[in-house]
Amino acid sequence: MKKLSAVLAIAAALGLSSQALAVDEPENVIKYRQAVMKAIGGHMASIAGVVKGEVSFTDHVAIHANSINAMSKAVTAAFPEGTDNGSYKTAALPKIWEDWAGFEKAAQALDTASANLASVAASGDKQQIAVAFGDLGKACGACHKPYRVKQ
């Protein structure tokens, strides 16, 4: 509580209005969720390099899978109502908000598949990792196909 009071006092001293402190403007939320998705994509690309045999960092797969699993927990929160359009470009389709239950189910599948990959990755078994990674890719596609503009 003391820290919050100190932050507010500093903001007041600097002359920041409450409007300047508003952080959840739709454009900012869209940028945030795009960064979340890019982070997941970066980890996916790293794992793909291992699964394809392009790099030998099998021991890193668990790091990437755990990161994806952690980020998967932020997915639904990154899609609040009112961020389906606006002045900032987004590939999110209105169907996300029209079929919220389906979107939540798809996000849960991402969480489950990434947790499974993290568990399998700990074994170091490249064949099991490849199968679990394929399942994770399917979970991603199951959300991207109905809820994202075709890329």
Give a short summary of the structure.
The protein is mostly helical and 151 residues long.
Throw out a few tags for this protein.
about 65% helix; about 150 residues; Four Helix Bundle (Hemerythrin (Met), subunit A); mainly alpha
Description:
- The protein is built from 6 helices and no strands.
- The chain has helices spanning about 1-15, 25-50, 60-70, 95-100, 100-120, 125-145.
- The protein has a single domain, classed as Cytochrome c/b562 (Four Helix Bundle (Hemerythrin (Met), subunit A)).
- With about 150 residues, the protein is an all-alpha fold.
- About 65% of the residues lie in helices and about 0% in strands.
- The relative contact order is 0.13.
- Helix 2 (about 25-50) packs antiparallel against helix 6 (about 125-145) and helix 3 runs antiparallel to helix 5 (about 100-120).
- The protein is elongated and about 45 Å long.
- In percent, how much strand structure appears in the residues? under 5%
- Provide the helix percentage: 55-70%
What is the averaged pLDDT score? 88
Number of separate structural domains: 1
Give the name of the CATH superfamily: Cytochrome c/b562
